[in-house]
Structure formats: structure tokens, C-alpha cells
Design a protein that fits this description.
This protein is mainly alpha-helical and about 80 residues long. The chain is built from three helices and no strands. It has one domain (about 5-75). Keywords: Membrane, Transmembrane, Transmembrane helix.
């Protein structure tokens, strides 16, 4: 096994998992307007959900590295 092979693979899998979980936030955008809260609170929750989603995506992108970038690029070009 090449040096850092297992560690690199674990980072890649963790990165892809973070990216996948970041997309699970999007269904919450459909529920937020239905909550019995003020408009300001709904806006705050929406912004927080967006930051959470993009933050997790960024961490996943960082962890997956170049291998993750190439994998994602291949998936999107199909």
C-alpha cells in the first residue's frame, strides 16, 4: 500500500460523506415557511441552514482533496 494510502482513502470517504450530508439540508427549506415563527426568525433559520450546508460542503470538499474534485467533476459531466 502506498504511504498514506489508507489515511487518504478515509479522508476521501469522510469528505464525500460530508458533501452528501450537506445536501440533506435543502428539504428543510420547504418546511421553514410553515413554522409558526416570525418572519425574522424564519429568515434567521434559513440563513443558519444555508451556512450549515455550505460549511459542510466546504469541509467535505477540503477532506476529499483532488481525488474528490475529480470524482465530482466526472459525475457532473455525465
Amino acid at each position: 500500500m502506498p504511504p498514506g494510502g489508507a489515511n487518504r482513502r478515509i479522508r476521501f470517504i469522510a469528505g464525500v460523506a460530508f458533501i452528501a450530508v450537506s445536501f440533506l439540508v435543502y428539504p428543510s427549506y420547504l418546511v421553514i415557511p410553515l413554522l409558526p415563527l416570525s418572519g425574522t426568525m424564519k429568515l434567521g433559520i434559513t440563513l443558519l441552514a444555508s451556512l450549515l450546508s455550505w460549511g459542510m460542503f466546504g469541509v467535505g470538499f477540503y477532506l476529499s482533496g483532488r481525488e474528490g474534485y475529480d470524482w465530482l467533476k466526472r459525475r457532473l459531466r455525465r
